[in-house]
Amino acid sequence: MKRMAMIELLAWKEARRRKPLLVTGVRHCGKTYLLRHFGETHFPDFAYLNLEQNPQIASVYDVDLNPKRILNDLSNAILRRSIVPGRTLLVLDEIQAVPKAITALKYFSEEMPSLHIIGAGSLLGVSLRKGEASFPVGKVDHLQLRPMGFRELVWACGQETLQKSLEERNLQEELPPYYVEPLTKTLLNYYLVGGMPEAVTAWVETQDFNEVRQVQTNILSGYAADFAKHAPPSEFEKLDAIWQAIPAQLAKDNGKFVFSRVKKSARAKDLEASIQCLVDAGLIHLLKKVDHAQIPLSAHADNSYYKVYACDSTQTSIFGCLSLRRYKTNFPPITCTGEAPSFSHRMSLASRADRGAFCCMAHLTSSRAFSASYASLTVASVTPSLPMYRITGRGLAIARSWARCFAVNSILICSF
Q1: 10 Å Cβ neighbour count for 385?
Q2: How far apart are CA 263 and CA 239, in angstroms?
Q3: pLDDT digits over 67-109, tens only?
Q4: Which domain holds residue 154?
Q5: Which of 89, 118, 144 finishes a domain?
Q6: What CATH number is attached to the domain comprising 13?
Q7: CA atoms of 84 and 237, how far apart (whole Å)
Q8: Which of 108, 306, 334, 355 is most buried by a 10 A CB count?
């Protein structure tokens, strides 16, 4: 599948001051496929190692962190083939399984800058918080891969030419029906299918939501298994309880995430460490409240008052029991002005979301439970790479002005 992250990978490949690259992201978001495709199509030679599947690799890093010796041992003892700096792309997948491999990237940066080396990990943030690795600060480049955005789903559905034509139009003007009808259908499908590549592939190949739902269920089961595998026994119950509580919390009239509804009598200090663990793993996003819309928003955000959203619509649509039929017939609008939205507004927001630079306001009109599920789909599906904030109170009027002219970047404004 065509991914926008490929542009960043190509820029890294040609950069003069290139450093080892760390690619992070939740499981099943397409890291391995993307890196394999990148290596096979843009390098004369490609070497791939999965550090979780091959436990022998850990012993290579136990001797010392000398990059020349490590590369020699990987070439001769593990891969049994040569790795040539400047010619070979070396990918170390599931790098969090060998924390010393993360630390060793510092020495590859200093002593072997000509080698193209990428480390990829799904739970890298969790490993670092445990203190299992000394992070090579300033010695690596970063790329966080997220679930597929709406633009990427349009490409996967064979509508790339339509999307390119749309980019040349003024999206503040009403779009003709031959744009609106096919893209509206794709947008609706996107909220149900989500952005996990395997689910998107199932949808493109079968056009069967039951097939998609089975894939989504398997992905969620894998996340639960990860909690049991990587979290200490004392934390597993908390992580699982928080994860399961997200759809129910969004369906209630809560101004923020209520800890006592996750576990009876629980307080913030009891669960905040577990929430941060899920944030580090990339599984959830925190949407913090801002009462006064002044720049920088981070200085005015209330760090103790936030809502929690999953990284993709998969969790909300399944755990929230979102009905496919009801969803398709009760589609709440999104508007950037507080008025009745046009499709061009929705398309503009979805397009801007892929670039991580947009303003939008979720305008919810249906029943509370369904609206909350839809809000979660909206937030999860167009999550930008930059921080999100929830504007409330007097600041909402200012936020509407921003949204009208799209004058401010990287803000997600939700009124619910």
Answers
A1: 11
A2: 11
A3: 999 999 999 999 999 999 999 999 999 998 898 999 999 999 9
A4: 150-415
A5: 144
A6: 3.40.50.300
A7: 47
A8: 108
Quick one: 232 and 361 in the same domain? yes
Same domain for 224 and 130: no
Report helix, strand or coil for 116: strand
- In angstroms, rounded to a whole number, what is the distance separating the alpha carbons of residues 106 and 310? 32
Which pairs with CB-CB distance under 8 Å and at least 24 residues apart come from 66-72? 66/107, 67/104, 67/107, 67/108, 67/111, 67/112, 67/115, 68/111, 68/112, 70/104, 71/112, 71/115
pTM score of the predicted model: 0.75
pLDDT, mean of residues 227-250: 80
What phi and psi values does residue 320 have, to the nearest 5 degrees? -85, 0
Terminal CA-to-CA distance of the chain, rounded, Å? 35
Pairing of strands 389-391, 284-290: parallel
| Radius of gyration in angstroms for the set of CA atoms belonging to the chain, rounded to a whole number | 22
Alpha carbon distance 270, 263 (integer Å) = 10
Provide the residue count of the chain.
416
Checking if the pLDDT of 177 tops 50, the result is: yes
Closest to 291 (Cα-Cα) out of 255, 335, 343: 255
Token representation of residue 109:
């940066």
| Domain co-membership, 121 together with 157 | no
3-state secondary structure of 112: coil
